Amino acid sequence: MSVPHALLGLLEREPHHGYDLKRLFDAYFAPDRPLAYAQVYSTLARMEGRGQVRLEGVERVDGPDRRRFAITGDGHMELERWLNEPLVPEPHLQAALFTKVVLAILSGRPVEPLVDAERHAHLERMRELTAIRRAGALQIALLADYCLFHLEADLRWLDVTAARVDELRAQILTLKEKS
Amino acid sequence: MTAFPSSVLALESTAPAVLAASGLVKRFGQTEALRGVDFSLARGEVVAVMGPSGSGKSTLLHCLAGILPPDGGSVTFEGARIDDLGEGDRSRLRRTAFGFVFQFGQLVPELSALENVSLPLLLNGVRRSVAEAAAAEWFPRLGLDGMERRRPGEMSGGQSQRVAVARALVTEPSVIFADEPTGALDTIAGEQVMELLTSAAAGQNTSVLLVTHEARVAAFAEREIVVRDGRVSGSDR
Fold first, then answer.
1. Which of A97, A179, B2, B36 has the most neighbouring CB atoms within 10 Å?
2. Which residues of A touch B214 (CB under 8 A)?
3. Residue range A123-139, pLDDT digits in tens
4. What is the sign, positive or negative, of the torsion defined by CA atoms of A119, A121, A127, A130?
5. Mean pLDDT across chain B
6. Structural domains for chain B
7. Given an 8 Å threshold on Cβ–Cβ distance, is B234 in contact with A152?
8. In the CATH scheme, what is the code of domain A1-84?
């Protein structure tokens, strides 16, 4: 899971307080594993240091100060780069892949090119592993098999997600309207 | 060992691709199964065709192989149009220049493994003794020693599918069309079939068009195309 990129994706829509970001992150990306407030603020601080977000203002209403963050030009570029570049194919990428799919839907970007790019990157890695297992001793082949099976599982998940993307889009956009 | 239909032989090959499609359209009633597909397969290349069920993968294979005539666009083999051939010429092309492996080997149950492998040669007019000698050479190459006289019902699924691979390769075709060739096999048997199919095809510079929904099987190919709603996307070429 790439928390910074998920936060950049949420900030791309509009500036938010840390509190809002945590609430939106939990709703869209991790309903089963809520993000800790401390992680939201520490991540925002690191992103601010990298120039990807900026503090837009501090609101003093009831309770503690609320710091409102906005995405910067560098933040936009980083988000665009992350969405367009396939992830380095390795087992268990589900959370990061899911974040990409949801962000694409939220921002109105097409999902299919993203899925195709990830599939292609996965298959490229699987071709390398297949070549290794064809040439290697059994212990090498079995180790390659382990990676191949996990990459294949990620791809299956990606295909199922792609097949249900319209349904997912409808549900996420309903959530967006409520938020 | 390819004897092309006269209308194909009449034209010289100018295209670098062994098989190509341009703007391919195929309809079944109101349903448009292929909606303008462009595709090319180089000599000796192995390409995987992926995509969800019902996306048009098998229809694409059938149109490229001359099993189904397309409703629009063109298919060229060795640079010559084949989509406008009559059924007789297409059938001859399939027997001589193409090989086929399907999910269920579709071996003739009454014939022995050796007779099944000989069959395409016999249909092409090769004498039985010559055909069986050529067929017998494939058995050790595909790990089928001693299986020559067995009937399909006396072999495992993996062995039957390797016989089907031998039958597809025995005419030394230019292109093998494999539609879910491992779909009915367990993982190890499926990988053996793919290993043997791709190695043997490479050995005689045969191209392979492989329809599969399994990523591990597609990883035996050099590249993949994705068919979605009758269109091709996700190709790296």
1. A97
2. 152
3. 999 999 999 888 878 87
4. negative
5. 88
6. 6-233 (3.40.50.300)
7. no
8. 1.10.10.10
